Amino acid sequence: xxxxxxxxxxxxxxxxxxxxxxxxxxxxxxxxxxxxxxxxxxxxxxxxxxxxxxxxxxxxxxxxxxxxxxxxxxxxxxxxxxxxxx
Amino acid sequence: xxxxxxxxxxxxxxxxxxxxxxxxxxxxxxxxxxxxxxxxxxxxxxxxxxxxxxxxxxxxxxxxxxxxxxxxxxxxxxxxxxxxxxxxxxxxxxxxxxxxxxxxxxxxxxxxxxxxxxxxxxxxxxxxxxxxxxxxxxxxxxxxxxxxxxxxxxxxxxxxxxxxxxxxxxxxxxxxxxxxxxxxxxxxxxxxxxxxxxxxxxxxxxxxxxxxxxxxxxxxxxxxxxxxxxxxxxxxxxxxxxxxxxxxxxxxxxxxxxxxxxxxxxxxxxxxxxxxxxxxxxxxxxxxxxxxxxxxxxxxxxxxxxxxxxxxxxxxxxxxxxxxxxxxxxxxxxxxxxxxxxxxxxxxxxxxxxxxxxxxxxxxxxxxxxxxxxxxxxxxxxxxxxxxxxxxxxxxxxxxxxx
Lengths: 86, 403
Known about the structure:
heterodimer; A: 86 residues; mainly alpha; Non-ribosomal Peptide Synthetase Peptidyl Carrier Protein, Chain A; globular; B: 403 residues; alpha/beta; Peroxisomal Thiolase, Chain A, domain 1; ten-stranded mixed sheet; two-stranded antiparallel ribbon; 14 helices; 14 strands; PP-bd_ACP (chain A); Ppantetheine_attach_site (chain A); phosphopantetheine (chain A); Acyl carrier protein (chain A)
């Protein structure tokens, strides 16, 4: 699986949906993922890709990690992978 | 119904090793939060806390006691010694049978668990000290207080996360009010600043890396602290008959459950506990001069708490003062309500309102008088202490000035 498919699989599991039902333009809100679900998804992303994601639940918007849509999360994970694994 | 008063107070926390030191630090707006000095702190992403610095257990307890007393029990016993000493009470005969201990803690002997898991998992040891179970159990502190001062009545431990102390003190209050007990030693303790304790909290992503700034627009999370607060709650006529010094009256208590989310707070749940405590105390909301806020410094708590206060008090919300002393001592989790009750006693007894330090910038969602950065002199007759726990369990205590 490539990064995009892995991120979608993580989000789909959290949202209790089939991966095919998760679209790149979806927001986490569209998918019914609340703040606790988001924190759990970020943990899964860190474990899956062996990266550290900068994220403070007190102010998700101020975090360097863009969570505005599935596409944004995929892009952010790709970026962090290249920064942290070269 | 019997009236309940406080005749003794004790504490050890990041601001001081006793009550006078703590109140002095609160008056001066001193910060007890700093770099964490614990094993493997370099592997933590959160490296600050309200730690009790320069603490030497051997200065207070002997070898046999240390083998049985986890850090949270040690803090409890030191605070209890101060509180019971101040009350001047000794327990024997009927009084001992009608006096007990109700304490709050969330993690109990977490340092003991952490150290011994390390021994068996990391170091591969196949043997631990024989007293690990009695040392780590959540009721160890309450039991040792009952043993040391011969309190033979009802004693137990309450664990409701961040509201543990308030729930415990509420039980103590109700037991004296109903006539079940004459004197209750109550409050709470927490010693969660160990590698596992912090690591678990890190996971939630609600911790600040640089400080606790409740209600400030620049806040970015909570900071953990450690310590204990212990009080002597006494039936009023009993205290009066023996000429005891009365610090204040415990006027009312209420608890509520959000019944909604395991971590996100609810305005309605908080509001029901606040208004419930005033109703229980038969006080007019307009008489409340100060609220010691739960004020954790997280985005979720502070705006929900301010909205609840605004709802309950209406126009009076703009006239009362509300501060979070967690800005100075951090969040003592199961012990926090007890240490915060000291600020409430200072308000009604001494007329000094503890500040919310670290306040940098107003947040329109927390638009109340949060007593920013500097303590204030003010005469207040009635104060509330809020505690809202994970799991949606809320407990609010009302105190009255004793005249």
